[in-house]
Write a structure and sequence with these properties.
Blueprint (H helix, E strand, L loop, with lengths): L8 E6 L2 E6 L6 H6 L2 E5 L7 E5 L5 E6 L2 E6 L4 H6 L2 E5 L6 E5 L6 E5 L2 E5 L13 H4 L1 E2 L8
Antiparallel strand pairs: 1-2, 3-4, 5-6, 7-8, 8-11, 9-10
Length: 146
């Protein structure tokens, strides 16, 4: 997934944390694998989405203390809600906002290459309203690895 203005930066996981990094055809195989996810029906709501790491089966992006991270699947309601995001219209044509199902008013956002669930103008530094609409808009891209 990419965001407007950062079409060479992709959502990926590194050391169990979600972030964005530049990925190209010449990137290392591990970087490409870390930037590839299966889009699954939402674990807490099948009309929404969950993101399973393609290179680490059974690990999903979820938020904890607002930071988006990759964790093994847990059989708890909290985990399933933390790992479920509902698609809403993004700020540019063809993009989507990924709204957290259990942190109302927050969306998956990249901020200084890190990925958080953030609200527009909230109390945390990653809630900064500058470029919020663009930073929470994502576009699905072709997978880097099979």
């Amino acid at each position: 997934m990419t965001t407007p203005g950062f079409t060479d930066r992709f959502l990926r996981h590194q050391d169990s944390l979600a972030r964005t990094d530049v990925v190209t055809s010449g990137s290392a195989p591990l970087l490409k694998a870390d930037a590839t996810f299966y889009i699954r029906p939402g674990l807490a709501d099948s009309s929404c989405y969950s993101f399973e790491a393609r290179n680490i089966a059974g690990r999903y992006l979820r938020h904890a203390d607002f930071r988006v991270r990759l964790n093994p699947s847990e059989n708890t309601d909290l985990y399933r809600r933390d790992a479920t995001f509902c698609a809403q219209p993004g700020s540019t044509p063809g993009s989507v906002r990924l709204a957290s199902i259990n942190e109302l008013g927050t969306n998956m956002r990249h901020y200084n290459a890190e990925v958080w669930v953030a609200s527009n103008g909230g109390a945390q530094v990653f809630d900064n309203p500058v470029s919020y609409a663009a930073d929470v808009s994502w576009a699905v891209a072709a997978p880097w690895t099979p």
